[in-house]
Amino acid sequence: MTSPQPVSEPSRREPVLLVAASLVAAEALALLAVGVSVVLGGAESRLLLDVTTTGFFLAYGGGLLFCAWGLLQARRWARAPVVFAQLIQVLVSWSFFSGETRWVTVLLAGTAGVVLVAVLSRPATRALVDDEPAY
User: Fold this and answer.
1) Which tens digits make up the pLDDT trace of 113-123?
2) Spatial separation of the C-alpha atoms in residues 32 and 61, rounded to whole Å
3) Packing angle, helices 47-72 and 79-94, rounded to 10
4) Nearest by Cα to 29 from 68, 55, 76
């Protein structure tokens, strides 16, 4: 006779959270790459500026990567910083609107829009919120 298998808890991983986490991770990796490129391509005359800029991008990218992991694990705390980062990204994208860089605006704002829709959707909210609202 075999012993009964323990009943596993149903997975709370929603496809929308997987999409959001993947896009946020891609954003994080891009920010980490920018940070590394700043320090590698920097001039000796602006060393302090390059070091602080690199530190900013590495911290921002690392924080977003941690939040992407939080979304994958359906952690409630991950949603607020991700939403904030996407709103900042929409504002930054606007600076690329004119001229030949308009595609950057579309890329940044489009990615931010998809992430916002995903993390604020009903399935994501159900997965991230443990308790039912009391009416």
Assistant:
1) 999 999 999 99
2) 5
3) 130
4) 68
